[in-house]
Design goal:
Number of helices: 2
Strand content: 25-35%
Radius of gyration: 19 Å
């Protein structure tokens, strides 16, 4: 009887892990770029910029390229999809 309880608990745990991983896979649509926002994390004192480099909460210094799978946990990260814009180098100077 106890082995069935342990086996059932293990199966429930395994199903929960699979569901979290399935919800964590992000795929950016074609022609778009993903902007990563971290929702939780430790704030660092040396983060003085609006774009975060060291993993503090807020927009991250990382963009996701289209048509590639990424693993971002849904309770830690939100991904915003924006249109990809191409700029010519001569016009930026």
């Amino acid at each position: 009887m106890e082995i069935y309880l342990l086996l059932g608990g293990f199966l429930v745990f395994l199903v929960l892990i699979i569901l979290v991983l399935a919800a964590s896979i992000k795929r950016v649509p074609s022609g778009m770029v993903g902007i990563v926002h971290r929702t939780m994390g430790r704030s660092r004192e040396n983060e003085r910029w609006s774009v975060k480099v060291y993993g503090s909460p807020g927009p991250q210094a990382e963009t996701l390229i289209a048509n590639r799978p990424y693993l971002r946990l849904p309770f830690l990260y939100q991904v915003e999809y924006v249109r990809d814009v191409l700029c010519h180098r001569a016009r930026l100077a």
